[in-house]
Amino acid sequence: MKKILSTLLLTTSCASFATESINFLAFGDGGYHPDYPKAKHLEKPKNKAEFIAAEKADWLEEHRPLADFGHAPIYIYPNTDIATEDTGASAVGQAMATLCKTKPCDFGIQLGDNIYPDGAAANDGKDDQQRMNDLILSPLKPLFKQNPELIVYSALGNHDWKTSRRGVKLQTEWMQTQPNFYMDSQGYYNYTLGEKGNDVEFFVLDTNMLLSGQHYYEIPLKSDGSEQGLASALASGQAEVEDIEKHEQPVNGEDHRQLAWLADGLKNSTAKWKIVYGHHVLWSIGGTKYDEAHVLRRLILPELCEYADAYIAGHEHDLELLTDDCSRVLPGNNKPKLPLIISGAASKMRGIHQPLADYQEKRYPEYDLVWNKAFTWGFAHIQLDNSKDELAVSFYTTPTDKSGKLVSESQFRFKHRSK
Length: 419
Description:
This protein is α/β, with parallel strands linked by helices.
């Protein structure tokens, strides 16, 4: 009954959409707060200087230029000298509310990692209802107060899956009790919004499920930022099989069913716009997600290139805009480039790996990095402009003083590419 009521609510909310455009917020990785720390930060606490030194050591170990080094604002736990990174979740929520006072925001999409560090059911002595109120709902209260009818359509990320399937179930059940959130109980789903002829169908992926069904390796980059082959990495003992927890492993072919559902849904969709989103990236310059990206491109890029207008992801804690011209998976195609939007800076921030970015530009002719901003908190606003037949993506950030001030960064436009 709750799911039926939620669907009815979502349907009725579409009536207010303008025929000429559909506008929505895109934000990911918003579920971090120092009150819910990683176990390693409890077991081996560091003061501020030690914390920054450890961040710098990791940075250099990954062959990143020292000149590019930075770190998130530091949070010191009250009455201690124990340090960790601070959160930008509330500041981003306030910045989104500010934007939506002057720019249409019909709904939002949440790109996973809604609960850090280990999802719900984390066995840390904390109440899960309070955890979800704190990490998912609380940062967005300014947005919902301003627009009580706004719905956020959520995806799952790897941290949401971290502890158990029970944790995933707790989150999807919590979503069904919330008037401003929606997530299907199986984790992947589709929905259509807008007036027929000018509408959009979204396909929400559980990319963690897709990747967990694959056997692949984590391979460190070479010192110059280039990727090394599997054979040489195995020979040198540097390749490690991606660690998939038992509870993450797909059951009864659910990963294959999701892939078939996506392919069939995109092919047969009658919506004008077709947009796919999930947590994991297809391309990025963060420096640690390239192995997963290779796998995910193999699994879903051919269908996206053929039928979709954009792919939106989080996972990297920065803002990025990339494109793939689809020449590798659709040789000879004349479609516009596929926009790949990364908006994973809703509570955490991360730097980029410039040598990897340079390498990818040289190695992969189909790929292009259009724009990025690292070591920042922020989000994206996307408009589907039916009058111009264009997708416009605007990026916004908010300062590290946690004021919630809205800062406009850049805007880009792409031609409608699906049939």
